[in-house]
Amino acid sequence: MSRDLGAILALMQAEFLDELPERLALMEAAVLALEAGTADAFNETYRLVHNLKGAGGSFGVPIISTICHQFETFLSQKAEAFGPSESTVALAYVDLLRRTLTASNREGAGLAALEQALETMRARQVGRRFSVLVVEASPSMQRVYQELLGQQAGLHLTLLASGLEALARLLHESYDLIVASRELPDLNAVALTAALRESSRSNQDKPVIIVTSNAKPVPAHLRVRARLKRDPRLAQALLEQIEALRT
């Protein structure tokens, strides 16, 4: 039964990859239409990228989802002003997606090279800003982090609500700091950190701060930088930790 299911999933993935060139051709045309100022071209481009992100995850090609997520972020930041330079970057994302059509680029050294190219693009967009991945399921706490780290501190902030999604992102994208809630509905901060420490990716040894509402200790072998309590002093304590990392 499991072999039958595996065969079905493999067939679905193959069909998805067969259709990928057509999807990317539509995406490229939408980007060019966006540069030309065509009405509703932004919504069409964003829709194509967003749908492909979901499909990449569903059909077992996570690098496609990772590229599309970064592409989505770029589009969101450039929604009000999209010209030739923005079009060049957008088309570079489409080219990265085309590279996933080659099987050797979806594993091993080819995948590592693709991840490095994606990280280079991200670094150019972020510039020298300190990058923080925050994993927090509470919408109210997400707003706190957005205001504190994104607006007040001016950091490059990525907010996720799922530990599993965060782990998938951390396997392909580099961050200066990970801040994760211990109380997550799927993969909590301790499990996320353990998986990260066991990986061989660029974030393996990156500092992790766990935010928690209980006093339960964190295993020492996980090398967590700090365990901060979810209380009124959290904001100040977090900013102090970030300042120490940046100096």
Structural notes for this entry:
The chain is α/β, with parallel strands linked by helices. The chain contains nine helices and five strands. The protein has a five-stranded parallel beta sheet with strand order 2-1-3-4-5, with helices on both faces. Helix 6 links the parallel strand 1 (131-135) and strand 2 (156-160). The longest helix is centred in the first third of the chain and has 34 residues, at 2-35.
Which key phrases capture this entry?
247 residues; alpha/beta; Four Helix Bundle (Hemerythrin (Met), subunit A); Rossmann fold; 2 domains; five-stranded parallel β-sheet; globular
What percentage of residues falls in helices of 4 or more residues? 55-70%
Indicate the mean pLDDT: 90
Helix tally equals 9
Low-confidence stretches: none
Radius of gyration: 19 Å
How do the helices and strands follow one another from N- to C-terminus? HHHHHEHEHEHEEH
Highest CATH level, the class of the largest domain:
Mainly Alpha
- The total domain count is 2
Principal-axes shape call = globular
GO biological process, one term: phosphorelay signal transduction system
Domain HPt: 5-114
Protein name: CheY-like chemotaxis protein
Keywords: Phosphoprotein, Two-component regulatory system
Topology at a glance:
Blueprint: H1 2-35, H2 41-58, H3 62-77, H4 84-99, H5 108-126, E1 131-135, H6 139-152, E2 156-160, H7 163-170, E3 177-181, H8 189-198, E4 208-212, E5 226-229, H9 234-246
Helix pairs in contact: 1-2, 1-4, 2-3, 3-4, 3-5, 4-5, 7-8
Domain HPt: 5-114
GO molecular function, one term: protein kinase activity
Domain Response regulatory: 131-245
